[in-house]
Amino acid sequence: MSGQSDNGGSGGGGFRSHRDTAQVDMPMAPPRRPGAGVAPAAPSVPVPALTGPVPLPADGRSDASPLVRTVERHLDEILAAVPQPDAIELAVLDAQGLLCAEDVVSQRALPAFDQAALDGYAARADDVAAATVAQPVELAVVGESVAGASAPSSIGPGLALKVAAGAMLPSGADVVVPGVWTDQGTVRVAVQAGPPAGSYVRRTGDDVAPGDPAVHVGTPIGPAQISLLAAVGRDRVLVRPRPRVVVLSAGTELVDVSATPSPGQVVDVNSYALAAAARDAGADAYRWGILPGDPRRLTEVLESQLLRSDLLLISGTFASGGFDMVQEALAGLGGMRFRQVAMHPGPAQGFGRLGRDEVPVICVPGEPVAALVAFEVFVRPAIRLMLGKRQLFRRTVQAIAGQPLLSPLGYRQYLHGTVMRHPDGGYVVEPVGEATDALLARMARANCLIVIDEDVTEVAAGGLITVMPLLLGG
């Protein structure tokens, strides 16, 4: 089996849906029995019939058929078309988790004044250099400085000032003797050890000087960056905003979660699942719900949602080789194309830029498992690109297959699985169900996608395979 983990950038053949390899925390697999080695290769068996893919020509290349395109080509088209939202100014707390869109230059020095780094006594290093426990040095204590507004003070030879952490340092002092190194005297203090000059002192501008950059463009804004922004006097900052993603479901068979389905009807789970996935990817996601069945009302809904979104995400079982009502409505709003993509599950995918602002519209399959797989492969990278993230794709690992795996020739297969750390090092992975299964409960137990490339039809137990851990927020 030839596992694929392309660590390259976006050049060359375009974006890959799985490329980087990194260590991730996983549960530990049970140890192998003593003497047990790698499982033998599974005997060749016919590839089972899978829902969706139509077998490709014998050479297995997706490009051999003009009706089927590779995963990379479809992903490249989407990533090339998604917009870069204009930067906006937000309050610093609202900017948490976003990327800074400006170089924030400090107009202040941090610290703003010479200050004590801990509780102790401000003194001259020359006065305490010879202090030992056996022969302490005594200094006269001329006052006390605490954190907060205070008048500048000074000390001379043989004098000390009691100081608290963060308090203004008196002029003439070049060291703070920790209180634990003294007898804690109030009128006279016995210093039992003398630190070198500059110890436990924070000088003006040691952290940031006026004119220094505090936060750079492209820096993720977390608690530390918010702390620094507040320290340099910024209560607002320019950031890359979260893209607005509107999620809709298409299908006459769909009913809302609060309704009891009649025979032949199914609950609309995709609008909930995809909205949650979009939020996890960093977007501001809005769940509109089930598209109306009336053509005029359908067009009105699509037009209104195009006006409020940066990206429209629609799930549905769209007509193959023809147009259903939703496809016709989308086609009336711009260039929308539906194609077969060489992947399983869910080869039927759609993409276009619609409306006055040419908003990207991504259509994914209506079957819930396939919808979430398509989200991982196509939508999540698009959202992260719109956020300005450098790492568009989930990191992958190479894992040992715990059992034989089969895949249709010419299609990249994505199987939900569970990946664990192997007691001997590395990872071991097993699928949560058969390749033909599309069960929500099994998908909910998975913690990864197993990725089998187009030119691989079977993987023996013990073979290496690419695994994409599905870490929340990862």
Structural account:
The structure is a single chain. With 474 residues, this protein is of the alpha/beta class. Among the domains are: 62-86 and 242-387, Molybdenum Cofactor Biosythetic Enzyme, Chain A; 88-110 and 207-240, Molybdopterin biosynthesis moea protein, domain 2 (Alpha-Beta Complex); 115-202, Molybdopterin biosynthesis moeA protein, domain 3 (Beta Complex). 18% of the residues lie in helices and 27% in strands. The protein has eight helices and 29 strands. The strands form eight sheets. The chain has a seven-stranded mixed β-sheet, with helices on both faces. A five-stranded mixed β-sheet has the order 9-6-8-7-10.
Keywords:
474 residues; alpha/beta; Molybdenum Cofactor Biosythetic Enzyme, Chain A; Molybdopterin biosynthesis moea protein, domain 2; Molybdopterin biosynthesis moeA protein, domain 3; 5-stranded mixed sheet; 8 helices; 18% helix; disordered N terminus; metal-binding; MoeA_C_domain_IV; molybdenum; metal ion binding
